[in-house]
Amino acid sequence: MNEREEILQIFFAETEDLLKKSEESLLRLETAPGPGSDLEELFRAIHTLKSGSAMVGFNALSKYVHLIENLLDRIRNNQLSVTRPLISFLLEDVDFIRAMVDKCAGGEDVDPDALDARKARLNRFLGIEGVSGKEEAGPEPVPDSAKDEGWHYYHIDLRFRKDLFNFGHDPLLLLLNLTEIGECVEVAADTSELPGYKEMDFYELYFSWRVILKTTASIREVEDVFMFVRDENKIVIEEITDRYREGVDLQLGEVPLGEALVERGGISRGDLKSALGKQKKLGEILIDEGKIDKEAIQKVISLQQESRFTYRKTSLRVDVEKIDHLVNLAEEIGINLSRLQSLFIREGSLSRDEIGQEIENLLKVNREFQERVAGVRMFSLKGTFRRFQRIVRDAAYDQKKQIKVILSGVDTELDKEVIEYIADPLKHLVRNCVDHGIELPEERVAAKKPAEGIIEFKAYQKGGKIFIQISDDGRGLDIEKIHRRALEMGLDKAGGELDNDTLMEIICHPGFSTASGVTEVSGRGVGMDVVKTQVERIGGFVRIKTKKGKGTVVTLIIPLTFALTETLHVQDQDVSYLVPLWGIMGVEKFEAGRMRTFGADEKVYRFRGEYLPLMSLYRVYGTIAPENDRTGTTVVFLDTGRQKFGILIDEVLDPYQVVVKSIESNYKSVIGVGGAAIMGDGSTAIVLDLLGLEEIYFKHSLPGVKYENK
Amino acid sequence: MGMLQFSVSQDAEGVFRFKGELTIHGIEYLKKFLDTSFAHAKKISICMAGVTFADTASLQLLIAFRRSLKPETEWRLLELSPELEKILEISDLKNSLIR
Q1: What would the pLDDT profile of A96-123 be if each residue is shown by its tens digit?
Q2: Lower Cβ count inside 10 Å, N or C end of chain B?
Q3: From B97, which residue of chain A is nearest by alpha-carbon distance?
């Protein structure tokens, strides 16, 4: 990698961090608007981004970010208030900048039209100071002749519901009323939604309007004209006095033609989009000219995408604190090794205990070193959760729902790779909560609930697992309908009452989740099979709890890390096994009197007052022939979270922290085996996959169910 | 339709004369009139001098009807009353209806 590439890589990593920070600050700013620490943090992030992009020569990006900085400065100086549309716009900006950076990363130029359109929208918030070309001038005092004369200009956007006529209202009368308080200096009707003469329902309204009103009236007086229609319709009134001079909208010159045509009502946004869609891309032009064929272009595009993806994936930003710890530990290992060396030099004068003690110290430091190295891959869930907060916010806004997001346990850390695996399933669950879980405010009020729904993201660690919970206080799943459908589809032959596990199995059934009828009634289920599969791929599982009218809780239970696993080394019939510590409840000497046998050869064993199924590892794994069976001497009691059971083994050795090596990548996936590890003496041991083990054993135990090893 | 405040007559040159208020209450009447009188007409001339008011619903219907005409059909709205002029101006619908 040359110097330029190195600098760029640092820039890309830093930018992503800054954008994430900006997004978080914006979401906080929305709940607590106005100058304060969130605004300052946002300002700093944007400022750093501006300088950074200028430094690497991405000038278009830097200039654009400078405009945002100006806008933030206006908020800081109380010249602009924080409104929901402004936050939405700035959040979109974060996405826009991300896309710009992506383009720069791929060596592409920023699309000037897209940039212009964006700038135009930004200028709307900025007013005259932001008009491009004057960016470097900074805020200059605006000659406020309009204000001096007492005239105000308002931009009024009128979009009515289709059934407006049924309520006895007519937009024409509202427009006429406007003329009583001022002069409509511009009126643009949008008639593009009017259907064909034969198709139209003449009792419905299809037109909308945009008006610029010149008046001495206050915004409140203008709002009063729409008093009776405001709540039910989309009426947006914005004062634009600052950008309106001598009957001319100064902004219009800055807007691309397409935007201006939409603004002035000549065409609809749909028309513009469709026309822009007809513009040819570079690749298409080259194909038309016969310079290159489609496949060749496609190949280069995929190479580009792969390159961008790898570029991002390979870098890892680590806290300085974590690195400091590693450096300290490396020094400590060095010191201990020197001490050991000097002890050996003074040979004869050292006792066996002394050597033992030194080695013990070294091993302890080494263990911590390994843990810390693994910790470098650990990241808090903060970023992931904040992203969901944004998804909820945007989706709720679109669907006119009121949703409060509660986050807890955001500092819980997870392996980077695990986070990447679960991001999509989680996103899916979040969407489900918003789309289907939380009801519309009026439905909630009718159900005697607060109009504002709650979605909670919660993470915590228990044992060696991380629990991630997404809950909502919405309508819950319609168990009866799901049950009925499951019976129809033959998924639930028993027909008894649905417990949570069976429910989970049903809604995660691929055929089930795509059946639209069921999706509508259950309000959930789309893609739940994907969620389940993805989580299981990393050794986790999903649980669901739901109550009609009260809400749903989905919990993802996933391993903390791929890198290091705490285990107990045990032996059975001369084979070494490593049992993950997270699942172990206890270890006891085997006492025949506590065991009961029933049926063919089913065994249960009493542990802490309850009888638990007891299994022999050699039987499950088929490691030896039954005739060579020896009865184990020790029982290890396990709890997977779904099932408690005991395993009978010969001997318990030591606790062991291991790097689990995948068997799948060298051989094939074996159910019940989590991987293998190389022990201190060079031998190998099998790492038990407790959930897989449970699945094998208990599915075997079910009459009539044949287990197939995948 | 006893409440109807709108009527149509035809003069010797074949020009239809609208009179009164074009509102949603008479919209079915207006639609029926358009459907029956101009189904296959090559030339449509309507005098609007007597129209004192037109609401959004009626204007929508007239504009949709106009858009449904074949390109060769001639469409002429004559002598707008001052009231109608004001309405079409304030609603920016003049172009859609006349030109």
Answers
A1: 998 888 877 777 777 778 888 888 888 7
A2: C
A3: A191
Which chain A residues are Cβ-neighbours of B55 within 8 angstroms? Answer: 170, 172
Give me the residue from A184, A191, A209 closest to B96, CB to CB: A191
Q: B92 and A265 in contact by Cβ < 8 A?
A: yes
Instruction: Please provide the average confidence, as pLDDT, over all residues in chain A.
Output: 78
Tokens representing A455 are 């979605």
> Residue B64 and residue A200: Cβ atoms within 8 Å?
yes
- State the CB neighbour count (10 A cutoff) for residue A357: 12
Specify the CATH number of the domain A3-137: 1.20.120.160
Does A607 contact chain B (CB < 8 Å)? Answer: no
Q: Residue A239: what are its φ and ψ, rounded to 5°?
A: -80, 130
Contacts of B28 in chain A (CB under 8 A): 202
The lowest-confidence range among A19-23, A416-420, A520-524 is A520-524
Alpha helices in A32-83 (DSSP H): 37-55, 59-76
Q: Please determine, for the modelled complex, whether the ipTM score is greater than 0.90.
A: yes
Is pLDDT above 70 for A478?
A: yes
Residue (of A386, A374, A384, A376) closest to A317 by Cα position: A376
pTM above 0.80, yes or no: no
Chain B residues close to A172, C-beta within 8 Å:
55-56, 59, 87, 90-91
CATH of A145-277, one of 3.40.109.10, 3.40.50.300, 3.30.450.40, 3.30.70.1110: 3.30.70.1110
Q: Report residue B10 as tokens.
A: 């035809």
The Cα of B33 is separated from the nearest Cα of chain A by a number of Å equal to 14
Architecture of domain A564-701: Beta Barrel (2.40)
Q: Is A177 on the interface with B (CB under 8 A)?
A: no
Q: What percent of chain A shows pLDDT beyond 70?
A: 80
Q: Binning pLDDT at 50, 70 and 90, where does residue A562 land?
A: low
How many DSSP H helices and E strands does chain B contain?
4, 4
Exposure b/e, A623-649, CB count within 10 A at least 16 = b: beeeeeeeebebbbbbbbbebbbbbbb
A–B CB contacts, 8 A cutoff, strictly below: 70
CATH entry 3.30.565.10 includes domain A379-559: yes
Residues of chain A with pLDDT > 90, as a percent, come to 14
Answer with the residue of higher pLDDT: A596 or A8: A596
Cβ contacts of A209 on chain B, cutoff 8 Å: 91-92
